[in-house]
Design a protein that fits this description.
This protein is mainly beta and 110 residues long. 0% of the residues lie in helices and 39% in strands.
């Protein structure tokens, strides 16, 4: 972890527009999504069913859980469709010198 609390995740150029990528950051599963020319970091586990959001489809600033079709706002983590009713955490992201960093606190430290 860097002194600012942000952790290096990957090079920016490994991200593709609209394609979620899963990473483990400080033991936390995180999905990075390049959408609408911004990089978003969202917890990679659906709040309704323990499946990976990085396996879902991206549409604009949303990601859809592939299992039950709940969509989550990449900016806020709020569910937009049932059956999910609880938000998933989102994390601040920085892109500096071609590298992506996120501020991710391990469970229990949020």
């Amino acid at each position: 972890m860097s002194s600012s609390g942000y952790t290096y995740i990957c090079k920016f150029d490994v991200l593709e527009e609209g394609v979620p990528r899963r990473f483990e950051v400080e033991s936390v599963p995180v999905s990075l999504v390049l959408a609408e020319k911004q990089v978003f970091a969202i917890h990679d586990v659906c709040s309704h069913s323990a499946v990976s959001l990085s396996e879902g489809e991206v549409d604009g600033c949303t990601v859809e859980c592939w299992l039950h079709a709940s969509r989550f706002d990449l900016r806020t983590g709020q569910p937009l469709d049932p059956p999910a009713t609880r938000p998933v955490p989102v994390y601040p992201v920085r892109v500096e010198d071609g590298c992506v960093y996120a501020l991710v606190a391990p469970r229990g430290e949020r």
